[in-house]
Amino acid sequence: MSDRLAATLALDAPVTSIPGVSSGRAAALSRFGATTIRDVLAHYPKRYLDMSNICTIGQARIGENATIVATVHEAVLKRPKPKFDLVEVTLVDGTGTLIVTFFKQPWLVKTLTPGMRVSVAGKVEFNYGFLRMTMPFLDKVDGDNVEEVTGQVIPVHSASEKVPQGQMRRIVRGALAQLGRVYDPLPASLRAKYRLMPRAEALRAIHFPVDMAEQAQARRRLVYEEVLALEMHLMQQAQAELGDASPRTHVVDGPARRAFEEHVPFSLTGDQQRAVADISQRMAAPERMRHMLLGDVGTGKTMVAAFALVMAADSGEQALMMGPTEVLVDQYAQGLGPLLEKSGVTWSKLTGSTPASEREAILEGLASGSISVCFGTHALLVDDVVCHNCGLVIIDEEQRFGVDQREALMAKGAACDVLEMTATPIPRTLALALYGSMTQSYLREIPFERPPRTTKVYGFRERGRAYDVALEACKRGEQAYIVCPLVGSQGGAAAQASGPRPKERSRFGYSGTAGEQGEPVYIDSFDDFSGDDSKAAEAQAKFLQAKTFSAYRVGLLHGRMKAAAKREVMERFRAGEIDVLVSTTVIEVGVDVPNATVMIVEDADKFGLSQLHQLRGRVGRGEKPGFMCLISATGDKAACERLSAMEKTEDGFKLAEYDLSLRREGDILGNRQHGASVLKLVNVVRDGAVIEAAHADAREYMETQVRANTLESKLYLREVDAVFSAEAQRKTHIAKKGGVR
Fold first, then answer.
1. What is the pTM of this model?
2. Where are the beta strands (DSSP E) in 104-195?
3. 508 touches 524 (CB < 8 A)
4. DSSP element (H, E) containing 316
């Protein structure tokens, strides 16, 4: 037992305890966030080279991956431009010639000598009359026997100039040697239930598998372990947030609710009815409610939330409902206020622009209990907002608030129930990974039939056609949005009209090119960026007023405007005093103008599909058909194909799943939960069944073993804490060193 305990504790030993890792090498490893043996073991290969099938140069097929053993004929160093080293290695094997190219590795000229036998694995191409490989995996073959190469599966880890591939593999082998008889923290009952590999065996097999079948079994074990640890961590966090205060039970069928049901102006959809039933059940239970309402755009989340408000009022308690913008909070008041009044429920609205005298009256009403419901922005979080008896808090667009802000609102009541809502369509598997500690309801059905809405993708040179659509709408007396995500004076429409923009990086990613690692750069929330998009929007508005829409009234809305100015612009737009509204993504949430039928989104390829779907929800909200024009800033085929998904479906959940198949889950929502970055092996689309199973297992384990405080559960929770502590430290090191994930 002592050697097993020692091996387990050794996981948290520094990387310098691995043979051959000096302090300098440790500093280089820290750029990957690897500061302990645990971190090194979690630095999984990003891909594998299966060396089981070796072919000759003559047998290699163009466009396919191949593993070839051949002889070095010569290695030549070239410098096509200053400070750019290129090594060309000519390989021969009697059946043909292969030219292999390496970048920024001049030392290869000295190490790859004529007559040396090497193996290379990579994609075969044909250029300038020769078969070629660019930056393949290369290894030296000792002797004439190639049997040592055949059958190997070579892991390819993320590496760097200071820690090259070969060195990284040696470091990982050294870390694996430290494992010994390490304790397996995964509960034995769960290992037996799914016939999972022991942890030590899985770690060895994920890094250095005998074959890909063994690698698959190792991944299966470690994927389940990752998800289960995340779910347990989220559930522990939720318990800590809710605290130990005595719970309360709400009245869920009182007079206010019955009166409210009579005054709802439309019939609830089946999804809404199920969501109301879910919330009623949770509020009536003795345990505190922590519920998440996930809805597609326009599915009526606010109306479902209103049922929770009146149930709190029937219970003699108060409710606070917080939204991210004054525009959205105004709409709560306009849409729900009259219905609450008819139901006998008192209400108020508190924002940053509420007049001092009115604010004082609201604070007195909340403190005395005479106000039952208060809609508000961040203004609700101020210390002098004190409730007499708050029993429910509702957080709309919860991903726009920080953890501290959500906790501050929950603290307004003792053991109050919590309902969080988001209009970002999130597939169930990702929702379980991000919100696994909460019960959930989904809204997919639209409450009433709406006119058709069309989405069309235009290339940059076709943007004039998109503006023709907006002009035609204005001629019919309708209104249009122009979403302007550009930056600086060179990003305006005038600059665009003068020709293509340079491929430069801006606060919104890259214009017309891919990310640093060859991956697309997308935007999901402009709140996370610094810079001044208001200047670009102002320039766009001036240009459009002077040129394109000179016969119509152009307005401007952006996040840097004062609240009163934003509210004035929106009221004028609703009243029809503005025909074309140039805006940043401040209109993404909650803006409801039935006469707005056209939206043009500039540089649409910089957005994620989920946010484009959110923006699309702002048009076609009345009796007239809606039209959305997406203008791509690049002719990139992959970018246009991704945008074309918007033309094919109005289902936000399908779009989110498609977006998720192309991107990391953390990119969809930002890092609301730092757990998103813990899922190193998990693919939330492919591993949906594993996530479902792990979520159910975690909840059962929390309710049985953890509640019983068993020794096994104590050991497992220690491991969960260690994993998340290590992850927090890893992210800190990456941020300090400016390294890569």
1. 0.69
2. 117-123, 125-127, 130-134, 137-140, 153-156
3. no
4. none
Q: Give the C-alpha separation, 563 to 556, whole Å.
A: 13
Cα-based distances in Å from 594 to 324, 479, 499, 617? 22, 9, 35, 11
CA atoms within 13 Å, Cβ hemisphere of 626: 23
- pLDDT tens, residue by residue, 672-700: 444 445 678 888 778 888 988 999 999 89
Return the axis-axis angle of helices 212-242 and 688-701, rounded to nearest 10°.
Answer: 40
**413, HSE (Cβ side, Cα atoms, 13 Å):** 27
In 165-301, at which residue ranges do the beta strands (DSSP E only) sit?
290-295
- pLDDT, tens only, 2-33: 676 777 777 888 999 999 899 989 999 988 88
User: Quick one: CA torsion of 379, 381, 382, 383, rounded to 10 degrees?
Assistant: 160
What is the spatial distance between Cα 196 and Cα 491, in angstroms, rounded to a whole number?
A: 54
Judge contact between 409 and 350, C-beta under 8 A: no
Nearest residue to 206 via CA among 195, 217, 196, 198: 217
Phi, psi of 46, deg, nearest 5: -85, -20
CA-based radius of gyration for the chain: 30
Q: How many CB atoms lie within 10 A of CB 244?
A: 8
Strands 130-134 and 439-443: unpaired
- Residue 380 DSSP label: G
Distance CA 621, CA 576 (A): 15
Angstrom distance (rounded) from CA 345 to CA 349: 14
Q: What 8-state DSSP symbol labels residue 559?
A: T
Question: What single DSSP character describes residue 549?
Answer: T
DSSP-assigned letters across all residues of 70-101: EEEEEEEEEEEETTEEEEEEEEE-SS-EEEEE
